[in-house]
Amino acid sequence: MTDEEARIKSIGGGSLLIAWQLKDKRALVIGGGEVASQRVESILTADAFITVLSPENGLHPRTKRFIDLRSDRITYHARPFSGPEELDGADIVLTALDDNDLSRSIVEMCRARRIPVNAADIPDLCDFYFGAQIRDGPLQIMISTNGNGPRMASLIRTKLQKGLSGREGAAITKIGRLRNKLKERAPGVGGQVGKERMEWMTAMCNEWAMEDFTLLDEELMDRVLDEGWEKNKRVPSLNDIEVRRPQIQSWITTFILPALPTATAFVTGALAATLLLTHRPRP
Ligand SMILES: C[C@@]1(CC(=O)O)C2=NC(=C\c3[nH]c(c(CCC(=O)O)c3CC(=O)O)Cc3[nH]c(c(CC(=O)O)c3CCC(=O)O)/C=C3\N/C(=C\2)[C@@H](CCC(=O)O)[C@]3(C)CC(=O)O)/[C@H]1CCC(=O)O
Ligand SMILES: NC(=O)c1ccc[n+]([C@@H]2O[C@H](COP(=O)([O-])OP(=O)(O)OC[C@H]3O[C@@H](n4cnc5c(N)ncnc54)[C@H](O)[C@@H]3O)[C@@H](O)[C@H]2O)c1
Domain Siroheme biosynthesis protein Met8 C-terminal, which positions (predicted)? Predict the structure, then answer.
């Protein structure tokens, strides 16, 4: 069996990680505690309409703040869950209750109506899990341990965050705009034009430093497309579009970052030598 065949045979045991487009769809959150407040934030991120159902004395201050500040998206009913008719019109249901039996019966009602459901206290019955998230503009990263270690997911998020510059979201926003402008100039789906567009965008992303995309405004994007796409379908340099990196940024990327490994090795070596010399055993 080849490695690829073995890999294919071993696929499985995870979840389908997808970016669910919930914009303007209807989400029902049953419960108003701390977990519910986290659910509300996740769903607000996806621009859905939310109904929260919970007695007022069980509202967590964060849930209350969301309800007060986002009445454009959130409808609040200050009462306990009353029965299956509450589920009418819901595209997604989330329970965050301190009542396991009620959670279980709501899951059953959702199953009967084929509404995707997450019950915060019954992983085995969930259609999907939440995960730890990193968000930076259009960039979203989700970490899942598939129910094994939610706290670990949160810690891994913190680790990953340290490896990001914080400018990825801004760069991706610009790339999105550039892609749309390119599609306006070279419209059509699939075929030769689609292939050329994809090759060009792939080369742009591969060859430009991510930070450089943040330098583009509308006019510069047009220049990138004039110079790079219209003329000869090649990737233009910053020079070609007459742009210079801000001095400090170019200084860091040109000199400091490449020299960092050598400098670190040098300092470590010097420290080790000093330690050896000063702690030599006396004859
Ligand atoms: C990632 C995150 C996303 C979010 O909730 O948005 C999330 N839980 C988070 C935190 C967290 N949850 C818990 C602790 C205490 C420490 C610990 O147990 O580790 C902490 C830590 C903390 O609060 O820091 C307790 C807990 N969690 C579940 C149960 C029920 C059970 O297991 O029976 C119990 C009670 C267990 C008990 O009674 O002992 C179940 C689930 N929690 C999930 C997601 C799904 C699996 C995700 C995955 O494995 O990747 C799953 C299966 C269902 C779901 O919720 O969708 C969020 C981090 C958000 C962030 O930091 O950004
Ligand atoms: N999945 C996770 O990440 C995670 C993490 C921690 C806890 N949990 C579990 O999630 C559940 C919720 O946790 P929490 O900290 O938000 O609890 P909580 O006690 O703060 O909240 C429970 C909420 O349920 C509401 N409620 C109770 N009966 C209701 C009813 N009949 N109709 C509508 N609302 C009702 C209460 O008003 C309250 O708002 C617990 O079962 C907990 O074990 C899950």
Answer: 169-233
